[in-house]
Amino acid sequence: MFLNNYETVFILTPVLSDAQMKDTVDKFRKVLTDNGAELVHEDNMGLRKLAYPIQHKNTGYYQLFEFKAPGTIIEKLNTEYLRDERIIRHLTVSLDKHAVAYNDRKRNGLVGKKKQTENA
Question: Which residues form the signal peptide (predicted)?
Fold first, then answer.
């Protein structure tokens, strides 16, 4: 079975306790793995200020999952996002080979650093 590369980010409401936040992240990790996804990377970006108020809230907890999965999982994942009242925004995108390579370089600390050149 061919697996596509995806990245999903969701924002949790800031009124959750740490335990509730962890339970919600675990729930979506389980949704992915139960439906045949292979998690590549996970990043808890923490509490951040929103660009504009959403549901009268100015901050939210950001969580990112990068994963490989068949295309059929996206509809199930979006349905779970919409059913969960703790999620205030979500976005899932398909990654091409360039985006996957960029994410690998970013994780290895190679993005944003200047290349060393030899002076002749």
Answer: none
